[in-house]
């Protein structure tokens, strides 16, 4: 038969293993979430609308590339060649008539009269008009030759390059340095490689992060189930509860420092036709933020504004200080001797501070903020959606709750469960039934 000491040692060993496992999973969730947030911030920077859809340099490069392709692919169809030949014929006939009228104008100088005499002697206007169609065909044929096309292409591109040099954004250098530094950070050379890397890496990180998150939830569910199985084993309650507090603290720490919500609004795709070419902008980020509760507190306090500092301190006290103090006080209460059991401060935080702990309120507040942001962005982004034959715009709202929120909700539920377990194992009556100066002593281990 297993002795109480052996059972207690076995329980401590098992719970220590679970505590180490959930701590490791929490560490992985925190580090992976931080890596994911950093990558998303870099992605939102390189794909920011100010570097793409609203960038003069980007538009200039797209237009120049489109026109260059049009010049390179320029060809004349037989119908267009016939039309060009007719236009050239008309112009040449006009030049003949114009030259004839100028020469036949009254001449006062001897040289002019000699030129007029030579013209009438050797040149026939009708003969020139008869020769025009042959010249037109020859000129049109020469214009369509590959060598002539190359010369024209060179001249057109040269003028286009001169024009593009006069169109620039004064912040171009700063933008290019920012984007290049991000590429170098991941040992990449261009935008397409970075986009491919981001898509693959974010998918992998997201899958791994949620795997560790669900393992943490499974451990908590297992601990709650174990409490149900051992509810009558009073000699195991104190070490079991102390180690359960450790698990709750891990959940709280990870929940506070891991991103809880991503606010992400972007133009997924914008395509339109320009000079027969398709101009496309992809994943143009309008706004992106990813924050944890601790990040929000730091931002509020660092603003320097009294109202923001006050709100930050309130969140710090009611969502961080009171939950941590309550958990630690219950541990001190169970482990302490009579002086701890009689301490009004420890007793207050262990049994009466629950009404000051607003962690559950924070859960609701974050969820309502998510609903609000999601609804507002869905409504506003809908105005950017448009589809026609020549123009297509698809705007998306990718706001989402992150693993930090799931873990924080798990902490709140686990904390409420531990509060009920504490009352059960100590036999503590409700506040209304207990006298104001009645401090129940912690249970004695008789094993």
What does this structure look like?
This protein has 447 residues and is of the alpha+beta class. It folds into 2 domains: 4-49 and 191-426, no CATH class; 76-143. It has 15 helices and 5 strands. Mean pLDDT is 76; it is low at 430-441.
Sheet with most strands: 5 strands, antiparallel
SSE ordering: HHHHHHHHHEEHHHHHEEEH
Name the poorly predicted regions: 430-441
By DSSP, the count of extended strands is 5
- Distance separating the two termini: 15 Å
Our Rg estimate from Cα atoms comes to 40 Å
Structural class: alpha+beta
Principal-axis shape equals: rod-shaped
Helical residue percent? over 70%
Question: Please, what is the average pLDDT?
Answer: 76
Number of helices: 15
Number of domains: 2
Strand content bin: 5-15%
What brief labels describe this structure?
5 strands; 447 residues; 15 helices; 9% strand; 2 domains; alpha+beta
What is the gist of this entry?
The protein has 447 residues and is an alpha+beta fold. It is 70% helix and 9% strand.
Please specify the SSE layout and strand pairing.
Elements: H1 4-46, H2 56-72, H3 78-103, H4 110-122, H5 125-143, H6 146-165, H7 172-185, H8 191-229, H9 237-257, E1 261-274, E2 277-291, H10 293-302, H11 306-335, H12 338-341, H13 344-352, H14 359-382, E3 386-387, E4 391-397, E5 400-401, H15 403-426
Antiparallel strand pairs: 1-2, 1-4, 1-5, 3-4
Helix pairs in contact: 1-8, 1-9, 2-6, 3-5, 8-9, 8-15, 9-11, 9-15, 10-11, 11-13, 11-14, 14-15
